[in-house]
Amino acid sequence: MAQVGALILVLGALGFLVSQAGDNLRARSIPTGFDFIEQPPGIQVGEGIQTRDFETGGRALWVGMVNTLRIASAGIVAATVLGVIVGLARLSHNWIVQKVSSVFVETLRNIPLLVQIIFIFTVFTTLGNVSLDSGPIHGWLHISNKGLSVPRVFGLNGSFQWLAFMAIGALVARWAHHHQVRKQEETGQLGYPIVAAGGVLSVFGIVGWFAHPVMGFLGPVFGLIADALDGLPEETLQLILAVLSIVVAILWIRRFLKSMSSGGGRAKLTDDDWFRMIFAFAGSVLVAFAVLVVWPGLSSWLLNSGRDFFQLLDDRFGSGNGGRPFDGKRPDIVKPGNFANYGPAGLTLTPFFAAVFFGVVLYTAAFIGEIVRGGILAVPKGQTEAASAIGLKRSQALRHIILPQAFRIVLPPLGNQYLNLTKNTSLAIAVGYADVVQVGQTIYNQTGRTLPVMAIWMLFYLACSLTISVVVNFFNVRLKLVER
Amino acid sequence: MRKQFLVRLLAVLLGFTLIASACGDDDGGDAGDDTSGDDGGSDDGGDDGDDGGDDGDDGDDGDSEDTVDVTQGGSLLDTILDRGNLVCGVGGNAVAFSETQADGSITGFDADYCRAVAAAILGDATALEFVPLTASERFTALASGDVDVLFRNTTWTQSRDTTLGGDFGPTTYYDGQQLMGRVADGFSAASSVSDVDGAVVCTNAGTTTEKNIAEAATLEGANFGGITLQTFEDFNQVTDAFIAGTCDIITTDGSGLVGRRAVNDMFDDWAIFPATPISKEPLGPMYRQNDSVFADVVDWTVYASIILDELGITSANAQAFVDGYEAGVSDPQVGRLLGIDEGELQSSMGLPADAFFQMVLQVGNYDEIFTNNLVPVGLERAGSANAGWQAGGQIYAPPAR
Questions:
Q1: Which of A184, A189, A190, B302 sits at 20 to 30 Å (Cα–Cα) from B330?
Q2: Residue of A29, A442, A454 to mutate for B, most B C-beta atoms under 10 A
Q3: Considering only alpha carbons, which residue of chain B is nearest residue A351?
Q4: Do A8 and B22 touch (CB under 8 A)?
Q5: Considering only CB atoms, which chain A residues are within 8 Å of B226?
Q6: A37-127+351-479 CATH fold
Q7: ipTM for the assembly
Q8: How far is residue A292's CA from residue A288's CA, in Å, rounded to a whole number?
Q9: What CATH code would you report for B177-279?
Q10: Buried b vs exposed e over A80-97: b needs ≥16 C-beta within 10 Å?
């Protein structure tokens, strides 16, 4: 009951605020509405998957979103790796390693991120100029005031075949891993599951390097799927999607009821459970309604993009894609117009990207390091002692006793750091990196649609945060101690 | 058990109906709110009309106030008089237009026009609060009422005039967008847009500049590979990145480039081009729309500064003009503008009769404002579009009568 009231109150308040904002904006003749998404914005974006000649404002915003996702995902990986190293280093018995990592943590987490980002950017701008006269780049790395360029590894068409080959390898490796584990459990002899799995994978990797064209047969298969999608009428897909969403909801409710029922009698359900079921069903009906009535273009879009996707796979897997699956190139400097700059051969981080990237990575790594250190220290000492009492070596104790428990403690705060990192990338505006905030701001300055753009920002960051939360929660639930 | 379920179902259904009806109410409520707002507005307007009702002219003003009050509820002019100071949005880092000095004060061409409006309304050029705004903050700040008026080298464009909820006053400076490159890179005043092929071009975000350069690059055609356009929040950052070499080319209004070159170009290495700007950038004041009373005050402050320049009345000799004025002998336009003559028009605008006398005394006429601020950085009035109309320029004001 209270929940119904709360829901109505929240929705009502939200509706009131939105209508108030709309009224006030109209009263000041400030335009509202999302029409700018459909109109050409007439702007350029600093970097990204497309930088000029945007057909719609939505596309420009999408470029900004991709830039944000790019920096956030690369940042999460880099910050985790660096953070774990720093955290372990702080626990090291080596005096120098321990002190260096302590200084790293204490310095970086006590300086505001904005200051760090601006500092890194300023450092970049003080570096030397790029010029064609400096000749070819001897070496792997080139830093200048136009950015940082490193060698790039990129997949050729054969890489798809190689990856398909590796997928089979992964299945085999999984089987080898299981086999070793079972042997150890049955006979008590020490097995080598990791070594076995790794060995299988590397064998497949090496063989696949030369033999990947055998996977070429997948091309025509994908071609057939593409043709089938092309022949499927739009209405059929609409119907399938609608029925599917309702069926999924009903199946979920049935399973939910079953999991709630205790033996013979009827399930005892709380208010919360009723709400879950009603919302699940209402949601599926809403989806069906949306697919059938509100947005019929969705299914044709799905059909078209699905067909294009499989056609692309068909091309990539097609015959004649022999040769190396991957290739690498060193950075180079080119002069396409009248100015020297880094060419497309190397992987180039612009000073703007680099400032934000290194800023968020170093800052977050300092926090992750502390979380990792805390997580390891939080495992009771008795666990280590018990492990050595049953005769485990120190490395075995760490691998099988300490780290699994530490990981369980570390995961939730780690998820928070990922959320922080993603949101902190919005500081990119300080150095002009073309993230979603910077592009959005440019668009609302040109069109005056401040609130609509902000609504898009909020939805975008909300979606990012929820995705990260879902992933972290998934692992969190899996790692949870099973209590009975 | 069964009863409980029914109660719950009913509760949920009730909830949905409430939500649905709430949504329905919103639409109806909007219309209701609007009309009631109208009523309150016209009441206020009537009161204002009573206050100022002196002669026939005021009848018109009353009418115009009525239309104002539909959305605003009273002119901004009354608010400023009550408050005792003018809140003026400026750039804060535009050389020669609005520069923040070491002691925190703001000087420059735009800042002087803020002073002029403050002197005209309140009789005191210092009854003024400057609000430094970035290019991307300015329109929101104006629309939300954070500032009364923008003197922030803002270009008058159709889209800004019609979609941002503001209106533009008379142009105070005719500008045009140009580019600036290094002489070391082979640039001179004779260079053109086609020479910047492949450059990293920097400018500040949220300006017309950004669109102009994107359009100019598109117009260059197929042989032009294109540019990388990098935008910064603040023009100081743009200049710093240009000095550092991260930007190959920077672009903004020609006056801004000249100003920056005067301040930052230590080695005489910067060239501004092309000779004919790539865009028209008429810079002027901007205020919220549908407030004709305040709009008139800003417009006529600018016009008065131009007319006083045409009449040769400066801050130095204004007092002499007042002292030596004789009705029927001297130029009546001077008498009206300085508020000495019976037929002066400032009172009917809601200003003190000596509004423009105070303005010219405390700040100066157009030429003085221009000469004090823009000439030192190398921007000349003679021969440019900013010369007076008698000298072949564009600076022109309607007659004061």
A1: B302
A2: A29
A3: B246
A4: yes
A5: 52
A6: MetI-like fold (1.10.3720)
A7: 0.76
A8: 6
A9: 3.40.190.10
A10: bebbbebbebbeeeeeee
